[in-house]
Structure formats: C-alpha cells, structure tokens
Amino acid sequence: MSALVHTVEDSPTRPGAVALRLGDEWFTVCALSVLTPGRGVAALLPDGRQAAVFLDRAGHPYAIDNRDPFTGAQVLSRGLLGARDGRPFVASPLLKQRFDLTTGRCLDDDSVSVQVYVPRIAGR
To answer: What is the rounded distance in angstroms from the CA atom of residue 59 to the CA atom of residue 57?
Structure first.
C-alpha cells in the first residue's frame, strides 16, 4: 500500500533525507527509511501536487508526477516497478500503462508523458 507523506523537518543535507529539486531549490519529502525498495510513496509538494517517489532494489531513487494522465487519479505511487531494456518503469495500477522513471515517457503511448523530478538522497 502506498502512503501519502508530507515533508519532514529534516534538512535536505541531513543524511538519509530524500529531496526533490523544484526549480532552483530542494524540497525534502521524506526520510529514506520511509521508502521500501520496489514500492512507492506519494509525497505532497508545496503547490498541492503529488510526486510518486520510488527506491529501486539497487537503492536508486526516482520521482515522477503521481497523477496517471489516462485516468486523472493520483495512483502512480501504487504501481509496480519493472525494467525494459535496462530502463526502470512503473506500471499504473489502473490501466497498466508503463512510465519510464527517468524520462516520464509512457512506454505504451509516445504522445503521453508525466513530469519527472530530480531526486537526491543526502549523504550519498
């Protein structure tokens, strides 16, 4: 099950804090301990949007918009992680479209994409 997390009080420079780049600034979304490899969480951003934040089994963080563009539902954080040609993706839990976690491009419909956020884990 995916959880909606709000920003934590940790500084983005504190080891283990996961932050997303929003414009020219970093926004801390959660502690690394909140993320389970292979699963996602939804993080509430300052402007009210949600980001789906993932940690793959190798420990690499990814973040994309949580809104499924095909249904409008905030569900991508609940999707299943996989890889195609070595590139990580998440499959929407609703209609199963796959979104590349590094580019946001829909692997099943080239005309659709989601926003990608640059994540970092402080102390790495």
So the answer is: 5
